[in-house]
Amino acid sequence: MPSKPARPLHVVLGTGPAGLTLAQVLLRQGLRVRTVDRTGRTVLPGAEAVAADLGSPDAAREAVRGAEVVYHCVNVAYELQVEVMPALQKVIVEAVAAAGARLVVMDTLYPYGPSRGEPLTEDSPWRATSRKGRMRAELDEAYLAAHEAGRLPVVLARAADFYGPRVLNSTLGATTFPPALTGGTVMAIGTLDLPHSFTYIGDVARGLARLGQEPAEYGRVWHLPTAPAPTVREVLDLVRECVGTPFETEVLTEPRAWGPFDASFMAEYAELFYQHTEGQTMVSDAFEQRFGMAPMPLRAGIGATVDWYRGWLMERSGAGGAAA
Predict the structure, then answer these.
(1) In degrees rounded to 5, what are phi and psi of residue 268?
(2) Which of 166, 189, 221, 300 is close enough to 17 for a disulfide, judged by CB 3.0 to 4.6 Å?
(3) Structure confidence by residue, pLDDT tens digits, 44-73
């Protein structure tokens, strides 16, 4: 009997919350999946785990060899982004082009800069004022230029602040759910009664996976499915409802160290603090209508996140770690 053709290989660069959740979605779709990080120790049943320093051209080329689609979900520490990300981009673009693969880039809202309270769509102007925002805008222009030049197919997928299972380093992450569940003080940032978009990590993964299989939709920016923007106060009220017990809130009206966000991190984040002192509403109607993919309702997403954090805290407690 003739052998079956090999399933397409999808390579996920980076095994943070977005990369791992994406890899799980791809595996459920029956695709071959390779995850790539520095250690190769992140093992998902059914996926190939590879260790690679993606700053090395040779290592990057080997990591994506044989891929049909590559997803760039690599994150870089805040204090290193401006220095490291441009060099990383060049290496990844060269490697993916050499493999003859398509590139899906996990992107942020930073290139838009201050929104002045206006809704952000894919057609919004890029007017970044921060160092990291301008750097991201330059990288995105280079990605799209590479696509236009025919070097490789590229698509940019933007999301608002993440929340959901595995998401720790977020304004709606480890400074919110563990203290809410353990009677501590929850941190909030900026003005509580302004709208602020949050993108559920499962929607990030589903959206990236869909773009990976839609080559006709490359060469542009897409906003991943995101529920209508609540106010931060409304989000905190939903957390209280899902947790079932009251908690105190401390509001940071300016950048300063708090809990896991130390002074060095907040010093780097200060230039992006405008995101919390003006309304930031990301609109994903174009993606939802084109691909028929609705975002997770906020109440359901908060509930799923609370459930995940309950388990996470129990595991940490059982392992002898601090619970919050």
Answers:
(1) -75, -30
(2) 166
(3) 999 999 999 999 999 999 999 999 999 999
Span 301-311, pLDDT tens digits = 999 999 999 99
- Assign residue 183 a region: left if phi > 0, alpha if psi is -120 to 50, beta otherwise? left
Question: By the 8 A CB rule, do 49 and 43 touch?
Answer: yes
Q: Is the dihedral of CA 311, 314, 319, 322 positive or negative?
A: positive
93 vs 173: CA distance, rounded Å: 31
- Distances in whole angstroms, Cα of residue 324 to Cα of each of 225, 262, 303: 30, 16, 19
- Structure tokens that stand for 186 in this block: 């929850």
| Helix (H/G/I), strand (E/B), else coil: 306 | helix
List domains and CATH numbers for the chain. 9-159+199-223 (3.40.50.720), 163-196+229-281+298-314 (3.90.25)
Q: Is-above-0.90 flag for pTM?
A: yes
Q: Report d(CA 290, CA 271) in Å as an integer.
A: 34
2: left (phi over 0), alpha (psi -120 to 50) or beta: beta
Report pLDDT digits (tens) over 115-155: 998 999 999 999 999 999 999 999 999 999 999 999 999 99
β-pairing, 102-107 vs 69-72, is: parallel
DSSP string, 142-170: HHHHHHHTTS--EEEEE--EEESTT--SS
The H-assigned helical ranges of 12-165 are 17-28, 57-63, 81-99, 131-148
DSSP notation for 188-231: EES-TTSBB-EEEHHHHHHHHHHHHT-GGG-SSEEEPP-PPPPB
Confidence of residue 84 (pLDDT cuts 50, 70, 90): very high
From CA 61, how far away is CA 64, in angstroms rounded?
Answer: 6
